[in-house]
Amino acid sequence: TSSPADRTVCSTTSTTFTVVATGTPAPTYQWYRGTTSLTGATNASLTIASVATSDAGAYTCVVTNHCGSVTTAPALLEVRVAATIASHPASQLNICSGTSASFSVSANGTAPFTYQWRKNGSNISGATSSSYTIASVATGDAGSYDCVVNNYCTSASGVTSNAAQLTVDVAPVVTSSPADRTVCSTTSTTFTVVATGTPAPTYQWYRGTTSLTGA
């Protein structure tokens, strides 16, 4: 009078199929997965205590008494697996400002997956793919990046990748050039340059096109 219903469950959880039948005398039951009878599965309900992916398939129950037998409509069991991180994003170190930087993550489990990239623990608007690219890095982009992955079987908080670091370097900028000098022979003179950059720049002085040793 009531066949078992289709089930979609997460691996390692339990699930139960139930049939309701009438007959005189009271019928007996035998459950099947596909064409294989399940040992000991002889009640009106069939419980799988910890579902594995190998349990997926079509389940039927044959209900029998001495007047005959009847088979339920098949109930399909779909088993999904919670998302896990297969590969974590790699740190992007010493990326020059104005160039691009990319992070990517991959997941194991049952698709489809959803992705949310975060910077320093805060969601990045629109960053909902398996990869995240900053087309032109600025110093303000430096920080810690991770990705929260979800699928049907993860908890609301999902599973979070390891954090990847982004450090941004800045090309040197001369903020004060050396000034012209008019000096008398045998006296000393000094040229000075002021420059910024990350990391701190190195210096090499020239006279004309000739580099000055040790300068």
- Strand percent estimate: over 45%
Average pLDDT works out at: 97
Shape: rod-shaped
Distance between the termini: 96 Å
Number of DSSP strand runs = 21
**Approximately how much helix is present in the residues?**
under 10%
DSSP helix count?
0
Largest sheet: 7 strands, mixed
Structural class: mainly beta
Question: Could you spell the SSE succession in H and E letters?
Answer: EEEEEEEEEEEEEEEEEEEEE
Radius of gyration: 34 Å
Low-confidence stretches: none
Task: Tell me the layout of helices and strands.
Blueprint: E1 7-10, E2 15-18, E3 28-33, E4 36-37, E5 45-48, E6 57-65, E7 68-71, E8 75-80, E9 84-87, E10 92-96, E11 101-104, E12 106-108, E13 114-119, E14 122-123, E15 131-134, E16 143-150, E17 159-160, E18 164-176, E19 194-198, E20 206-207, E21 210-211
Parallel strand pairs: 1-8, 10-18
Antiparallel strand pairs: 2-5, 3-4, 3-6, 6-7, 6-8, 9-12, 11-15, 13-14, 13-16, 16-17, 16-18, 18-19, 20-21
Features:
single chain, 215 residues, mainly beta, seven-stranded mixed sheet, six-stranded mixed sheet, 21 strands, 0% helix, rod-shaped
Walk me through this protein's architecture.
With 215 residues, the chain is mainly β. It is built from no helices and 21 strands. The strands form 6 sheets. Strands 10, 13, 14, 16, 17, 18 and 19 form a 7-stranded mixed β-sheet that branches. The protein is rod-shaped, with a radius of gyration of 34 Å. The protein starts with 6 loop residues before the first strand and ends with a strand. 17% of the residues are buried. The mean pLDDT is 97.
Short account of what is shown:
The protein is an all-beta fold and 215 residues long. It is built from no helices and 21 strands. Strands 10, 13, 14, 16, 17, 18 and 19 form a 7-stranded mixed beta sheet that branches. Strands 1, 3, 4, 6, 7 and 8 form a 6-stranded mixed beta sheet that branches.
